[in-house]
Amino acid sequence: MALSTALDGRPPAALLDDRILRSADDDECARVRAALTSAIAADRAFVAATPRGPGPGNAADADETLDFPFYRQRYLALQQTMEAGVGRLRERLRAMLTHGEPGMVRLAAVDAVMERALSRRERALLSAAPTLLSEHFERLRQAALTAAAEAADDAPPAVSTVWLEAFRKDMQNVLLAELDVRLQPAQGLLAALRTHAKN
């Protein structure tokens, strides 16, 4: 019903003034993408996940990063950061659209309805990522343990952390791919604003 109302309504015409156009010309999506990409890259899951020498604090940090719950917690925190940042971006772009012609106002209304209707489903689908990463984490760790045991002979196995670096890179790539998916609706709104500005 909400979607039908948004599509069938007859929003009042309005003019998209120069101030709004200048704001739309600034690449809102690029700025938000850059900020969120930096947040991912700077997260402690990726900058402090290797042993850093002797000392109780460093040992605790190293032990923490050898267990997946640490990465699950960091992934969920970054998901929340992305959801909030992209949500604010969509709200700003919809506000710009409401100053446009009736078709633009209708687009803003439809986007708001679709966000409400699909957000729960999107959240459920994206919440599967940590579970899949957990399985990947265990596969890499077990393969490293097996390789170390086979090469150890009579000496205690020394497990390399190369597998952990590979996992961290994979996790970072998954987060960046998720960011791309989350930004797609906002990119569509921004494209509509730019198209209107050119006409």
Task: Explain how this protein is built.
It comes from Lysobacter capsici AZ78. This is DUF3348 domain-containing protein. It holds the Pfam family DUF3348. InterPro entries: DUF3348 (IPR021783). The structure is a single chain. By secondary structure, this protein is mainly alpha-helical. α6 runs parallel beside α9 and α7 packs antiparallel against α9. The two termini are 32 Å apart. The chain has one domain. 22% of the residues are buried. The chain contains nine helices and no strands.
**Nearest-integer average pLDDT:** 82
Secondary structure class reads: mainly alpha
Q: What amount of the residues lies in strands? A: under 5%
Q: How many helix segments? A: 9
Organism: Lysobacter capsici AZ78
Pfam families: DUF3348 (PF11828)
Protein name: DUF3348 domain-containing protein
InterPro entries: DUF3348
What's the short version?
The protein has 199 residues and is an all-alpha fold. It is 80% helix and 0% strand.
What labels describe this entry?
0% strand; 199 residues; single chain; mainly alpha; elongated
Helices and strands in order:
Elements: H1 2-8, H2 18-25, H3 28-41, H4 44-47, H5 56-64, H6 68-97, H7 102-126, H8 128-152, H9 162-198
